[in-house]
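Researcher: Here's the sequence for the chain we discussed earlier.
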Amino acid sequence: QVLLEDSGGGTVQTGGSLRLSCTASGGTFSHRTMGWFRQASGKEREFVVRIAWDSEITQYSDAVKGRFTISKGDTNNVMYLQMTSLRPEDAAVYSCAVVRAGRFPGTTNPDDYLDWGQGTEVSVSS
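Model: Thanks. This is the structure I predict for it:
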């Protein structure tokens, strides 16, 4: 089981930027599909972006496309989520996770992911 740790959240003004990190211990992201999700207060967990680590194929939600960028770190156990042009509606707890074995790698359903990080909170002031 991979242990994921999310970090990098904080409070920014509308239009600001943040970079989130997801670091794995006990494993790497090689041959896996990784995802970022977010959950705002009182709402369900929402898909943000996923990356197939080896092929680097990515998929973004419409809500963040063009503003957020997922990228690999220098090692195979680190990935980033660069968030720009942040809006108040982006405020949420962001978590990374890995697709469960045997599930469709292109899934955006949070139920198909596991090994969730503890989450890092992003606040956006207007």
